Amino acid sequence: MAKADRKSRMAKIRARLTNTDTSIRGGTDYLKLKQGRNLLRILPGVGEMGDFFWQEVGKHFIPDGPVFACPNFTLGDPCPICEFVQELYQAGDNASKALASKVRMKRQFWMNVIERDNEDKGPQVYTPGVMVFNPIKGYVSDPDYGDLLFDEEEGLDVVVSRTGVGMKTTYQVHPVRQETPLHDSSCLDTNSLVILFSLLRIPVKTVK
């Protein structure tokens, strides 16, 4: 695909996204991990989430533009960005494939957490990718840990250690050894993820 065509198409996509409401309202807090050690308590699912502590979300990260929830992944509706990505890959040249890699749909796994060093903020929405989610999935599936991770009185916190910046960021994930209670169990009744999905008009995906 010619460079001029790519620029023209990206300009149209950015213009459309400018008029697409992707803002977060209602006081929802996103957790931004700091460098080094982050001590988190993963909260169990509530409301429409059922028994599941996470919600899988597809996102497009537009260069020099907003982050856009993929309607194809979340709703099954046509997605103009996914269509553009397919055209870029079909073009076959290195520049087109590089751009396609940047804007293609990325999976995130949204969950509610309590940041132990900042518990007064209450539940925050944490949006890790597969690098963090896969270790968490492994611990949840492990009978030595999984039954304890979400217990209100004798649950296990999870340490997520972050190093590096940008594309060179790496994460290490492991549960702590000692069980601890949630200091304020009322956070389970005001789970911010359910509120967030209502505001974004993104339905909670049913896991069968």
Layout of secondary structure:
Blueprint: H1 3-18, E1 36-42, E2 54-61, E3 67-69, H2 71-75, H3 80-91, H4 94-103, E4 106-115, E5 124-126, H5 130-141, E6 158-163, E7 170-175, H6 192-200
Antiparallel strand pairs: 1-4, 1-6, 2-3, 2-4, 4-5, 6-7
Helix pairs in contact: 3-4
What is the terminal-to-terminal distance? 40 Å
The low-confidence parts are: 20-27, 203-208
Total strands: the figure is 7
Anisotropy-based shape: elongated
The major pleated sheet works out as:
7 strands, antiparallel
Number of domains: 1
Query: Would you give the CATH topology?
Result: Replication Fork Single-Stranded DNA Binding Protein
**What is the tally of helical segments?**
6
Average pLDDT works out at: 77
CATH superfamily: Replication Fork Single-Stranded Dna Binding Protein
Helix-and-strand structural type? alpha+beta
Based on the coordinates given, report the CATH architecture: Alpha-Beta Complex
Task: Provide key terms for this protein.
single chain, 208 residues, alpha+beta, seven-stranded antiparallel beta sheet, 6 helices, 7 strands, elongated, disordered C terminus
How would you portray this structure in words?
This protein has 208 residues and is an alpha+beta fold. The protein has a single domain, classed as Replication Fork Single-Stranded DNA Binding Protein (Alpha-Beta Complex), CATH 3.90.198. The protein contains six helices and seven strands. Strands 1, 2, 3, 4, 5, 6 and 7 form a seven-stranded antiparallel beta sheet that branches. Helix 3 packs antiparallel against helix 4. It is elongated, with a radius of gyration of 19 Å. It starts with a helix and ends in an 8-residue tail after the last helix.
